[in-house]
Amino acid sequence: MQNILIHSAEFVFAPVLLPLLGAAIVFCAKAFSRGRIAKTIEYTGAAIGLLLPWLMLFIILPNLLGGSVYEGTIGGWDKNLGILYKFDGLAWLVNFLGFSVAMAAWFYSLGAGPRGPKFTAIFLIQTAALSATIMTADLFNLFVCLEVLGISSYVLVCSSEKPGAFLASFSYLMVSAAAMIFFLVGIYGLYRLTGKLSYEGIAEALAAMDNGGGITALISLALIIAAVALRVAVMPLYGWLPDAHAMAPHAVSAVLSGVLIKTPLFALSRILIIFPAGSDAGQLMGVSGGLTALIAVIIALSQKDVKKLLAYHSVSQIGYIVCAWGAALHIGVETPAGLVLMTAAFLHALYHALFKGTLFLTVGTLIDRAGNRSVYELRRGAGILKKSGEKIPVTFISFMLAAMAIAAIPPLNGYVSKNALSYALKGRWEYVVLTLASVGTVASFIKLSLIFFPPGKNHNAIAFLENPQKVHPAMKAAELFLAILCLAGGLFSPYISKIAGSLLNQSGTVGINSIPPDLYSGGNLQKTLIITLSGAAVYLLCSTKQGKAVLKRIRERPRSFSGLFTSFALGLAGMAAWLIYRTFN
Amino acid sequence: MADRMKNNKISIFYKLQIFLAFAAVAAVLLPVFLNDSHWPVFARDYLEANGEEQTGAANIVSSIYLGYRAYDTLGETIVLLVAVSGTIGIISFTGKNLATGYNEDDFEGGNRKNRKRTVLMEVVTGKLGPVILIFGLYVMLFGHMSPGGGFQGGVVIASGIIFISLGTGGSENNILSHSGVLAKIEAVSFLLLVLASAIGLITGIGFFANPFNGNPIPPVGYIILLNAMIGLKVGAGIAYMSVAMLGDTDL
Fold first, then answer.
1. How many domains are there within chain A?
2. Which residues of chain A neighbour B239 with C-beta distances below 8 Å?
3. pLDDT given at position A510
4. Which among A457, A454, A451, A441 is positioned nearest to A536, based on CA atoms?
5. pLDDT tens readout for residues A497-506
6. Shortest CB distance from B205 goes to which of A24, A76, A83?
7. What is the model's pLDDT at position B76?
């Protein structure tokens, strides 16, 4: 045991290196062998790349809880030239989130496809890039990590081989490649001023200047923030996400929505914490997060395609997270209030990954069996699943658990994390906005849940596939695994919140708990009841003739590629102007 | 008529959009590029004084991308690997599904390999191929002391392989133009590259640390090793992609 502890500094690279090793093994299996042997090697590679790092995370957990942080330079070079890394509580949490969802999603793909060594290898590479992104402390390395993350997700999105998938992947590629060029210009700007690439090196060098780097430093920071915010898909920059997430294979959708949009956000907080202008940037991001939560839920409510509806909910839920995250950075993560906000943000990120993962997998299972993905046409989902051999309705139960979780019904995890957010944001304007967004979420999930139930009287019957495909056991296992985690996340939330709080707590103040003490008090339950009832009322309003016309208008609003780029440019200019205004006034 | 009016409307809106986007980008970027502060000199001076001594590479560029920042290079190699893999996926998908839809009768049964070939091209590429291959190997293996390196050498190797496969005229008598062989080379060199990055973890000196200290292999050995692995991987990968584009449907 002693031996392991001494060398545990090497363990922190396991989440990056083992998936890469797994991917290399899978590539070799594909090149050298066929049939059963290739399959065996492929599964071994996946186990090395997904399961082993997940287990190793628990080996280093005690050390991190004990307050130690692994940091250094990769390769042991001079810290002014080499690549700095930092594996702290934040990195552990994001890695835990990433590997849990990735494992379930890969397992699901065994049944639902896309199968094959190539998919597995690229999936593993994406997972490696996720953990590399969160543990880097070097600006150029962050660029490389985001590139690997991006390119693997473009390939995974189009691996569903649906006609729309290629276009969705292409538009995702073009928008985020354009944004990455601006990111690179941002690196240039900061390097031009300071000659350093590590976050700390840049911050120190800027602090040593008379004017703190002036306008160039602020604009460079804005360039970096805008490019990362595009990956996170907050308000003006979200346009690429719904198509990409809706067209991807279901397993990939779960990872994209659950993990991929959050990792860059938490990686960005590493930069913003140490830059003086980071607090102002956090404030603006928080505002746009709040607006995202509300606007995206309205668009989600108008959607027809079930997976697009889920994708817009991902935008909305990331809005909740960014809102609390930005407020935390604005207050300062070292203050108790900031820490509570940051913990609540992470908690919601983790819980969202679990319930949104479940939703994508279960809804994906159903639409493949039914051969229809319209939320207005598809009905009797539970019956269809029964016909495809599900004696115990695992998919249906998992779906209902996750849908109730996202609608914040107690005692599921969504109830806890949304209450934690409300508790932390109490008395601010964001509180009102997020409460309104919760009403929309309830309405939208009432609408979505109908696909599992028998049709109403006025509903036109739609023909379904005659012999729906069997539901593979691996798919059921993955759905159930995530759904149980949703339930466990709600029941054991005090412990989880405590662990998350102490991992995020770098300054050492003890006793931070972001879970409100009155979680199951009458007032909170009453509030939930009111939100749920108003959600039902909103749903009824939406199903009237006028409501449907309004939703149709929202759904068919013009969207274009040039619009995506324009909103990026304006968002970028807005961020730069805001930082300059705040610094010089 | 109504359609046309609608189109006109969109185009004005479109122009406004584009104008706004460019104005915003220009306003943001200009101050960064017009910045006239002193260039930072730390890295330049440090590398001049210590670069060759610490990494053993006379080519300072190599000492940066395979020494101080080798981890970034691993990432860029992976970008290329995934890009090649994705391209192959699209080629094989379009080959299977789209080409028939677009009435490409070549695909129905005709031999696409013999299309647009001339004797002149075959003779020239066939003779030049091996020479280019050797030059590529040189660029790859001497990257630590002369201009070049794994990426550059790899691309030259890929062109050599493409020349050879063009020169053999579709008769598959050259092992290097088989996509299966290229895939094997790519997979093995990627595996070796990942393992090479982890040598330091096993010996206890840290991730991506140089395991060679002059006893018996000089430190520069690590750069040559990485260059060779990257070169083979890049060469095989790009050649694989190009052979696929030439019409090798056996993917």
1. 1
2. none
3. 58
4. A441
5. 888 888 887 6
6. A76
7. 94
Buried b (16+ CB within 10 A) or exposed e, A523-532: ebeebbeebb
Alpha-carbon gap, residue A192 to B41, rounded angstroms: 10
Please report where in the chains the tokens 């990409």 appear, as a residue: A244
Residue A543 has what pLDDT? 86
Q: Does B204 touch chain A (CB under 8 A)?
A: yes
Q: What is the DSSP letter of B111?
A: -
Tell me the DSSP string of B136-202.
Answer: HHHHHHTTTTSS--HHHHHHHHHHHHHHHHHHTTT----GGG-HHHHHHHHHHHHHHHHHHHHHHHH
pTM value surpassing 0.80:
yes
* A32 near B CB under 8 A: yes
Mind listing the pLDDT tens digit for each residue in B1-52? 444 445 555 678 888 888 999 999 999 999 999 988 888 888 889 998 988 8
Q: Does residue A194 belong to the interface with chain B, where contact is any CB pair within 8 Å? A: yes
In a domain, A201, yes or no: no
Q: Please check whether residue B78 touches A, CB under 8 A.
A: yes
Q: Which residues pair with A85 in a beta bridge?
A: A72, A136
The one-letter code for the residue type at A253 is: S
**CA dist., res. B128 & res. B4, Å (int):** 56
Residues A404, A412 contacting (CB under 8 angstroms): yes
Question: Do residue B29 and residue A185 have CB atoms under 8 angstroms apart?
Answer: yes
Q: What is the ipTM of this complex?
A: 0.90
A130 token code pair: 């996720």
Mutate to test the interface with B, among A11, A30, A77, A224 (most CBs of B within 10 A): A77
**Is the pLDDT at A65 greater than 90, yes or no?**
no
A198 occurs within a structural domain: no
Say whether B37 and A222 touch across the interface (CB within 8 A).
no
Interface test with B, best of A17, A139, A173 (most B CBs within 10 A): A17
Task: Answer whether B82 touches A (CB < 8 Å).
Answer: yes
Question: Is A24 an 8 Å CB contact of chain B?
Answer: yes
Does residue A205 sit within a domain? no
Across the interface, whether the CB atoms of A140 and B69 are under 8 A apart is answered yes
Q: Peptide bond preceding B216: is omega within 30 degrees of 0, i.e. cis?
A: yes
Average pLDDT over residues B71-86: 93
Which residue segment(s) compose the domain that A324 sits in? Answer: 277-543
Q: Single out the residue of B244, B85, B190 nearest to residue A118, CA to CA.
A: B85
Q: How far is CA B52 from CA A2, A112, A261, B58, B61, in A?
A: 39, 53, 41, 6, 10
Whether the per-residue pLDDT at A131 is higher than 50: the answer is: yes
Query: How much is the pLDDT for A374?
Result: 86
The CA–CA distances, whole Å, from B38 to A191, A208, A218, A221 equal 11, 14, 18, 19
